Amino acid sequence: MQGNIACAEGALAAGCRFFGGYPITPSTEVAEHMAKMMPKVGGVFIQMEDEIASISSIIGASWTGVKAMTATSGPGFSLMMENIGYAAITETPIVIINVQRGGPSTGQPTMSAQGDMMQCRFGSHGDFSIIALTPSTVQEMYELTVKAFNLAEEFRCPVFLMSDETIGHMRERIEIPDSVDVVNRKELEKGKLPYETDADNPVPGFPTFGHGHRVHVTGLTHDARGYPDTTNHKTHSDLVRRLVGKVESKRHEIADYDIAGTDAEIVFLTYGPATRTVRQIMKDSPDLKIGHINLRIVWPFPENVLKEFPNAKVFIVPEMNMGQIGREVARHTPVKVVYLPKLGGDMHTPQDLMEAYDREKALIGGGN
Amino acid sequence: MPSVSEWYRADRMPHIFCTGCGNGTVLNCTLQAASDMGWEIDDTVFVSGIGCSSRASGYTAADSLHTTHGRALAFATGVKMAHPEFNVVVFTGDGDLSAIGGNHFIHACRRNIDMTVICMNNMIYGMTGGQGSPCTPRGAFSTTTPYGAQEPTFDLAELAVAAGANYVSRWTTYHVKQLTDSIKTGMETPGLSFIETMSQCPTSYGRKNKLRQPLDMIEYLRDHSILISKKRRLEAEGKVIPDTTFAVGEFVRRSRPVMGLKR
Ligand SMILES: Cc1ncc(C[n+]2csc(CCOP(=O)(O)OP(=O)(O)O)c2C)c(N)n1
Ligand code: SF4
Ligand SMILES: [Mg+2]
């Protein structure tokens, strides 16, 4: 099965019943599969007039209680930025699939990249928090899409599947389970205000349209009633701190990664395609001491994982960008961080990684 | 059947509209029409963009989605297609609808989604303090047309007709009765109904164009409107119609294929 199709199948399994999208390579197969499947499951597929409309439509759909998603790539992703912030401040559960391609601008439509990793985190103006998942296999395109929907429901924030052309267009055998664990919308309790929260429950219940809550939803800074309150410093400060905190304070519970070789001095930190390359060199050279962190969730960044490598002398971060997550790693550790950008559309080869490994090994010195 | 006053969100009063603003009139006509329709508040969703006019959604008692600038129709498309049982009403402004949201406007009309779209056309960007919009008449003054607007304007009603809306009308805040009836007709008509309301903004438009008093602006709107039937007759007779006038009345009522009908 192709990665993009696995993603669409995962969405359907998670209960997605609204898809609004606009064609763009290399994500289009997700939309095409949704166009085919939605009528069969009683859902809605709509091809919107652009990506701004696409994300608008899924936010609107989500307020009716439906699980909704869109899929895009670089140029379309850029168009979505304003309404990503709208989803964040209104706490609308939505899932956005970004099958990344080379940018900036129209860039390399058919080639792979990971250049939108910072954009998904910080692309919309203002402070807020999101969750971003990064599959490295077709199986994970399925599983992490399911997970993306569950996290969107749990945290009421935009959740991104930050895939790329390599994994999106890859074909692998996958196992589709008979059923998956699904988190459904948690309705606001009657008698509670729409944005009423406390320290233990920073995510409010959802006042689904038509359920009698008579909620006013606005992108303006709002109080617990949902009413605009745009000049009160405390209202704004409390709201923004909660939007950031509800995700960031749970980052170690949200964290999803696997690690290997925790006693190594040289540690690769990867997500997406480079994960495959590290696994390849570990398989090819079982005697080499290589540490590996594979992140399936990049945002919120699970910095505690770095502490699992007490002997680390260097973290090598191969990315298909100029070092976006590498910089995040460096922010959290006194250990040396080596950026290993790969641009142009190809994933890292075993040789790319071995050269970096050997270089660092020589600098560290000592035996293997 | 909820009364007009029940359709208001009382705990949000007073509203932010300036004294003499036309938006209150349009909101009231809309809620009167919703009440006349016998709609239930909990079956209705108001969606709006950004601008003074778009604040109207927040003063209704129903579920409401105050979205981003220009995007109300795209959000409303999601609401209505995901849940066709809702009555969906969109409030928008001339800038919101025809400048930043122009693409969504024509596509919503083309899809002919079953909802009612009410544009408060005050010929200006009211909320941001009076900049020119695509509907600012040629020669009119605004903060960004200090020497008089030079650009030709949009005729929003004709645009909606051309793009495919099933019901299109235009009235002014002077024509309260006709406006209310027209909104109700729009609500009854399957497909997208577009009701353009020429509305006074004494603060941002009037101030710059010697129409400071709300009443002056309402009189201006009355005096510059011409019934569409009369306009068409005069045109057929080859008469010259001053380009400072605008047609009011029902532009179209038809039954093109529709999306998002109640199941
Ligand atoms: C993307 C974006 N650009 C600009 C603005 C600033 N802005 C707020 S309201 C508005 C104009 C509103 O004009 P109109 O739609 O005619 O509504 P009115 O206030 O006249 O009712 C603008 C430009 C914004 N909020 N968002
Ligand atoms: S600025 Fe104009 S449109 Fe806005 S509330 Fe005041 S009068 Fe109405
Ligand atoms: Mg205006």
Please write the CATH class name of chain B: Alpha Beta
Calculate the terminal CA-CA distance of chain B, rounded to whole Å: 22 Å
Briefly note the CATH topology name of the largest domain in chain A.
Answer: Rossmann fold
The rounded Rg of chain A comes to 21 Å
Would you state the CATH class of the largest domain in chain A?
Alpha Beta
User: Gap between N and C termini of chain A, in Å?
Assistant: 40 Å
Q: Give average pLDDT of chain B, whole number.
A: 97
**CATH level-four homologous superfamily name of chain B:** Thiamin diphosphate (ThDP)-binding fold, Pyr/PP domains
SSE pattern of chain B, N- to C-terminal: HHEEHEHHEHEHEHEHE
Instruction: Please identify the oligomeric state.
Output: heterodimer
Verbal overview:
The complex is a heterodimer of chains A (368) and B (263). With 368 residues, chain A is an alpha/beta fold. Chain A has helices at 3-14, 28-41, 51-62, 74-79, 81-90, 117-122, 138-155, 165-168, 233-248, 251-254, 273-284, 324-331, 350-364; strands at 16-21, 44-47, 67-72, 94-102, 108-112, 131-133, 158-164, 216-218, 257-260, 266-270, 291-295, 297-299, 314-319, 336-341. In chain A, strands 1, 2, 3, 4, 5, 6, 7 and 12 form an eight-stranded mixed β-sheet that branches. In chain A, strands 9-11-10-13-14 form a five-stranded mixed β-sheet, sandwiched between helices. In chain A, helix 1 (3-14) packs parallel to helix 7. The longest helix of chain A has 18 residues, at 138-155. The two termini of chain A are 40 Å apart. Chain B is α/β, with parallel strands linked by helices and 263 residues long. Helix content of chain B is 33%, strand content 17%. Chain B has helices spanning 4-7, 23-37, 72-82, 94-100, 102-111, 156-163, 176-188, 214-224, 228-236; strands at residues 44-48, 63-66, 87-93, 116-121, 167-172, 193-198, 225-227, 246-253. Chain B has an eight-stranded mixed β-sheet, sandwiched between helices. In chain B, helix 9 links the parallel strand 7 and strand 8 (246-253). Chain B is globular. The mean pLDDT of chain B is 97. The A-B interface holds A 17-18, 20, 44, 46, 48-50, 52-54, 56-66, 68, 82-83, 86, 207, 209-220, 227-228 and B 9, 12, 41-43, 45, 47, 57-58, 61-68, 71, 74-83, 85-86, 103-104, 107. Magnesium ion is lined by residues 51, 93-95, 122, 124-126, 133 of chain B.
